[in-house]
């Protein structure tokens, strides 16, 4: 099982971003490092939700924003280790849509939000066969 450690300021930024975009989904990049099966998130980078399907229930990271997040991480001497997004009025677990659009080897942090109040935060990693996610243990 993979483990993830999210620095307190990064977790606070994720929660604040989720609250500020409610009732729409927010999204952003997770910046840090990966050693063996442990991901460390030291910073976040908010990204625009560019979905054409409506930001209430979907999020999309544009290719340009993906590349910009990688560049930003490299400038810090770090890596793009995953993405976060919110689930307004839904649990912090991946949807079928999330499964269909996930990339391997990345962490996916999801924060549940209800009435503009961030709640449970959980992290997930796509299995190698792309059949489902495995929850990462938060440290």
Question: What's this model, at a glance?
Answer:
The protein is of the alpha/beta class and 139 residues long. The protein has three helices and seven strands; from the N terminus they run E-H-E-E-H-E-H-E-E-E.
Assembly status: single chain
CATH overall fold name? Cytidine Deaminase, domain 2
Helix/strand-derived category reads alpha/beta
Question: Can you tell me the number of structural domains?
Answer: 1
Q: How many E strands?
A: 7
Please report the first level of CATH classification, the CATH class: Alpha Beta
Major pleated sheet: 7 strands, mixed, barrel
Number of H/I helices: 3
Shape: globular
Low-confidence runs: none
Percent of residues in helices: 10-25%
- What's the CATH H-level homologous superfamily? Cytidine Deaminase, domain 2
CATH architecture: 3-Layer(aba) Sandwich
Order of helices and strands: EHEEHEHEEE
Strand content: 35-45%
Q: Strands of the biggest beta sheet: in what spatial order?
A: 1-3-2-4-5-6-7
Distance between the termini: 12 Å
Give the integer mean of the pLDDT values: 92
Rg (C-alpha, Å): 14 Å
């Amino acid at each position: 099982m993979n483990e993830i450690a999210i620095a307190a300021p990064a977790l606070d930024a994720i929660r604040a971003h989720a609250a500020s975009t409610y009732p729409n989904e927010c999204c952003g990049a997770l910046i840090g490092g990966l050693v063996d099966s442990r991901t460390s998130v030291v910073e976040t980078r908010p990204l625009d939700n560019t979905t054409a399907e409506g930001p209430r229930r979907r999020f999309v990271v544009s290719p340009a924003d993906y590349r910009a997040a990688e560049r930003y991480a490299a400038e810090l001497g770090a890596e793009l280790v995953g993405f976060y997004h919110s689930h307004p009025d839904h649990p912090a677990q991946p949807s079928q849509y999330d499964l269909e659009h996930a990339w391997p080897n990345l962490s996916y942090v999801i924060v549940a939000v209800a009435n503009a109040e961030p709640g449970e935060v959980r992290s997930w990693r796509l299995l190698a066969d792309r059949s489902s996610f495995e929850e990462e243990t938060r440290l």
